[in-house]
Amino acid sequence: MIRAFYVGRFQPFHYGHEKILNTIAEEVDEVVIGIGSAQKSHSTHDPFTAGERIEMVLKSLENFPIRHYIIPLQDVEYNALWVSHVKSMSPKFDVAYSNNPLVIQLFTEAGIEVRRTAMHERSIYSGTAVRKCMVESKNREWAEFVPSTVAEVIDDVSGICRIKRLAGNDD
Amino acid sequence: MIRAFYVGRFQPFHYGHEKILNTIAEEVDEVVIGIGSAQKSHSTHDPFTAGERIEMVLKSLENFPIRHYIIPLQDVEYNALWVSHVKSMSPKFDVAYSNNPLVIQLFTEAGIEVRRTAMHERSIYSGTAVRKCMVESKNREWAEFVPSTVAEVIDDVSGICRIKRLAGNDD
Amino acid sequence: MIRAFYVGRFQPFHYGHEKILNTIAEEVDEVVIGIGSAQKSHSTHDPFTAGERIEMVLKSLENFPIRHYIIPLQDVEYNALWVSHVKSMSPKFDVAYSNNPLVIQLFTEAGIEVRRTAMHERSIYSGTAVRKCMVESKNREWAEFVPSTVAEVIDDVSGICRIKRLAGNDD
Amino acid sequence: MIRAFYVGRFQPFHYGHEKILNTIAEEVDEVVIGIGSAQKSHSTHDPFTAGERIEMVLKSLENFPIRHYIIPLQDVEYNALWVSHVKSMSPKFDVAYSNNPLVIQLFTEAGIEVRRTAMHERSIYSGTAVRKCMVESKNREWAEFVPSTVAEVIDDVSGICRIKRLAGNDD
Amino acid sequence: MIRAFYVGRFQPFHYGHEKILNTIAEEVDEVVIGIGSAQKSHSTHDPFTAGERIEMVLKSLENFPIRHYIIPLQDVEYNALWVSHVKSMSPKFDVAYSNNPLVIQLFTEAGIEVRRTAMHERSIYSGTAVRKCMVESKNREWAEFVPSTVAEVIDDVSGICRIKRLAGNDD
Amino acid sequence: MIRAFYVGRFQPFHYGHEKILNTIAEEVDEVVIGIGSAQKSHSTHDPFTAGERIEMVLKSLENFPIRHYIIPLQDVEYNALWVSHVKSMSPKFDVAYSNNPLVIQLFTEAGIEVRRTAMHERSIYSGTAVRKCMVESKNREWAEFVPSTVAEVIDDVSGICRIKRLAGNDD
Description:
homohexamer; about 170 residues; five-stranded parallel sheet; globular; NAD (chains A, B, C, D, E, F); EC 2.7.7.1 (chains A, B, C, D, E, F)
């Protein structure tokens, strides 16, 4: 039995994350999904709360083929402690998946195997692009980037209204 | 659809928690289980990490009849912020279950319905009693208090050895 | 012009505090009143929020003869920084009033003059006694210890109900 | 009786703030003035301590027509907790005044009415402009932006010297 | 070359610590001495600042036979992160010396060798005993417990006066 | 006997720091060297842990003519408390050396004498330049900027590999 760890901010959860998780599902038996910067919300860079992001991931993985655990991870603002923080908050795991340079470096120094994930088209599969689209969208262009389950959560919390106002773009 | 919130320290998860969760399962459709004081571990009062406690709960609820979410909750050390902290970290919920006076008071002031859980025999169903037994056990007397799935997790991390040493009881 | 500094937890504001402030008013021109442990509330030791305590003090000092400033002070949990914290959060002051050994020592080491306040009968003029009475009161015995303005604030927030429940004394 | 809440960083208190407070005074009976980012000082963006800012506000509102309370508010760095933090530290209020998108969004989500304040000429009534002028002023050009009571406080703490040095502009 | 790590609160540094360090000096080539709970001071349990404790240790080890490093260590209040905290703040070390159950357990779980130190008479070689004596001493009985270099530091900061006042024992 | 205080981030320790320390050694009898932002590491701006930086400084000052103390200093994120933090963590000192505007301002306001250090060629003697060179170096061009003792520490922890990866420059 191999259990993987995969961390993201999921602001919001989009098709890029889904693709990576599908790849992970082919290679391991279980995956722990860490919701990074869990304490952050209500900014244009981090619009959604951890609870909202948990709902996005959960609903999008209804039919996910392998067992998965979702855990919010607050920042520690002290990089040298981050791996211990993750290990303390998470069920044990055997391998980590990431393309984030800091995450790769920290896990590697701690002797934990890290596997790179295939890079997908950044213009389509990027949180930055999705959030920019949310702020600027007249209709529901942003909904193209995310599973319909995620769009539901966002609508449910009036998320587009929130991010537009935070961007000073509400009129 | 009614979703409940139930928080405990689960140091360790024992039959008392299981009984309460079974009651909750009869009354609601889904339950969010908060792992309280998630940042605490390695003391006689809080021997296990949040990750270890998540494993205990997960494995013990394999056949649990309703959908459940498990989220670690770090302390905020500022009671007036606790309800907002919980709401920010958790999927939305409709009702909370608790017998803890502080939890009851805080949720009540925030306008959230709280249901008391039936009180079970404290000598058998109490974390304090289980931990005391762990420290003093010669054989595996403590294992009587917890599901076998929990005993497995504890054995896996040499938990009895850990709590005995922390209590200055290792020789 | 002499401005004094006086800090208390004011859980709740009672006649003992009032007596001390009256003494201070005779000796100086203005007083800064620090609400200590401002982030604490909802425990039997610290039942009221800083906001509630500010209301108690404000209303009780309606006719106070000298100008007064009320500032909430969060704990710093690092004694050597406490005087700098106070000085940073408060309008400048010339002298401090206290009977608290730690406060006296810290101000003294920082070169700030500290004046002791006359000690009043501890059984009547003590926060501990007032809170104990609140928890145990059948009628409104606790109201004897505090100005009627304070009793009003406490009633307004259902404070007796709160402290009784926190003490596990609500039935 | 209507009590309002108004928060600003007041780095420093200037005529723009005064205008807004005068408007508030026409609409409500009392106002709580929150000193935001209270723990910050000694940077070009936040040159003054909370204590210094309290003095600025107090002195400028000597003849203010309605009752006002001034409370320093330390940052919580966790937006979802901010409203609870404010409510815990402040006397109760009925309505908030703000033009800050984050403040508006957070209060609105918490069900608290927010009123926009009239926008005044940003080039004259802006903290950024005042601080830039302080750093660059040869004579006392900056004093045009603030009430004379504020200029007094700034002079009293050698504030121009401080901000110039912090900007690397002292020679 | 073997470098050891040894941590203590050193409130104050006394002959018990000196004995342990002499033993360590016989077994290794260098030693890192961690000043635990560095942020604590001005209480009867932790009377001295980290800076004062550094001076005590430094002066007492003037002629110490092996190279030694002294580093203050602030608490992290999150046991699972403590070893990473120590490793991040300290030059690399090969072995730890301790009799503290928590320290032993944490280093052991992290795969770091821990050596127990010989236990000395607790009534003579205990910080608790020294501090109790300081509070109660009429003459200089406490000075028997500590190197003269430590007594000098304590006198220099009026340490006995400080601890007596903090204990409410100053008259 | 005059003891100085000198603080830097030492990311990494380079010839510029060595020059300044040599100047200090000519003017005072002892020096406390504070390792600033001690909790930061594993970023391109702060690549090395406090422990690694302590090793760099220690080894580079093997033959330093005056007695020196090295203490890691975690950030307090509250400028008005910084001087008290430093004084609490450090052996007493008489004078501070710095060219940092914030450090100069804070010590000056606290009544501590600050001496400017001679400015050396910024292109050669700057941490920013050294780190940029580390990220871009094909061979060991960065090693020109630092004492060979520092290069050894960096090699020992695979520091160049670390900073290159953190910069997204590893291929």
